[in-house]
User: Fold this.
Amino acid sequence: MNKAQGAMSYDELRGAIAQRHRALSGRLQQIAEFVLDHPTDVALGTVAEVAQRSGVPPSAIVRFAHALGFGGFTEMQQVFRSRLVAGVAPSYKARLARMKSEEKSVLGRQPAAVLSRFVAEAQSSLVALSQSVHARELDAATAILAKARDIYLLGLGGSFPVATHLAYVLRKLGRRVVLLDGTGGSIHEQSHAATGEDALVAISFRNYYPDTARLFPELVARGVPTISITDSLLSPIVEGARVVFEIQDMPEPALRTLVAPMCLVQAMAIGLDLAAD
Amino acid sequence: MNKAQGAMSYDELRGAIAQRHRALSGRLQQIAEFVLDHPTDVALGTVAEVAQRSGVPPSAIVRFAHALGFGGFTEMQQVFRSRLVAGVAPSYKARLARMKSEEKSVLGRQPAAVLSRFVAEAQSSLVALSQSVHARELDAATAILAKARDIYLLGLGGSFPVATHLAYVLRKLGRRVVLLDGTGGSIHEQSHAATGEDALVAISFRNYYPDTARLFPELVARGVPTISITDSLLSPIVEGARVVFEIQDMPEPALRTLVAPMCLVQAMAIGLDLAAD
DNA sequence: GTGCGATTAGAATATTCATTCCATTTGTTA
DNA sequence: TAACAAATGGAATGAATATTCTAATCGCAC
Assistant:
């Protein structure tokens, strides 16, 4: 048995659970994972409720509390409740303090200030995204993808993360995807099999990656229906595209968070899946 | 008796109490004042406790709940508890409610609605990110990266886009980066040269990619200073890490937008660059 | 002051709850 | 394979809880 856990903060409890996790038995590990993921449920629920939601018998919950050094579930629950209580009142205070420290950060150079700057920027880019994308374009895009045999993804350089993410999601949804990444040589060869039966999603922002600009018109000329995600109507992947999503105000390459295009491709993929039923 | 108060928000309840205050009897007015002043006590206490603290008999508390149209104290307490839940996770409740209401409706299946849903979710994940990441962790992370000769990036499966993005930004800033992608065979070989002079950034979310879970402890054991970005303290890349960024409430793999981790790695990279001057 | 309706307090009750206990299963060592 | 220890699930138990009921009290009109 462990030492008594008299008064413990929620964060301390989290640490203690994480530390002992591997030493716990199977059932108890399962409970540990649940309570870390659903602290609110533990704070407000009864033993029976927590047990049901985590898929274990009630007695296991009590044993878990014992294993952590508590006298019982009720005692452990107090710690989870303290988190809720702390969340209401001092949040204002904490938020204000955080704001102040950020303002004071002389140059805005401290990592924390940098983060909040990117968060703020990402927020506004999301707002811009939802305003600039219209239902008609999304419908057209999902229609193209729905008819495609294979979906080719072209996004190199700074856009590569967006392409890989779209590839991942589409594959999870059971679509056939060819990610043009140039591994092992030419992306020309990777895209050689693309036809009008397939579809292409091209993603490119300034400065437009040369290979993208070169390959895109080839595929378009071969009759592959194309969806483009870019930051300007003058970009090299606009001409010939069936659908163009223009995401404006993309910061310079090293500073862009890719938040907006990530969201957009996600919505395209899920929208495609939901519409397919 | 008053009309039934089915589902009521805390603010609505406050308004209702204030409005009826003068129409209530003496004892009930006393209780009304107490509950408005001590909503947390009502949310977490028992009837007996609330009764004692407000200086009335328990039955009066129940009568008060009845007078407000609730079936009993327990029912009224739910409203006070909702306030606590809302306080700790500002957007969580709204997100769930929204998801549920939209999921069934025909509108929710249209691509445009899907997009706005993801945008909303991304927004809330950004708020959660800026609240959960502390300056101390960011400082420690940038310090590790600043001292590193080579920076190794480990992020496979669904986390791969995050790793590629971080690789891109760091390289733009002139850092030496090794992206462990397993191309052409074993990632073991790719990471073979890593030593204590280098650094590792590991990114992994549920379900944790097996190769990540396997490689991570090896690198840690070899003394490579490590920064982990994950969604639970129980994830396989937590133990042994110098710095852990925990990003909570990550949706299931196919639905996550990766917005929060993308922002975080961006801030790490830029913060590193600014601090290096 | 008297009578009547509304209000109240406290005891009684029925329910819900956390906890404990034990038989069974699971995993391990010999 | 056998024997043992650890862990587990579910029923039993006793405590705690919300609610109801009833007798007493209060406020008020007459």
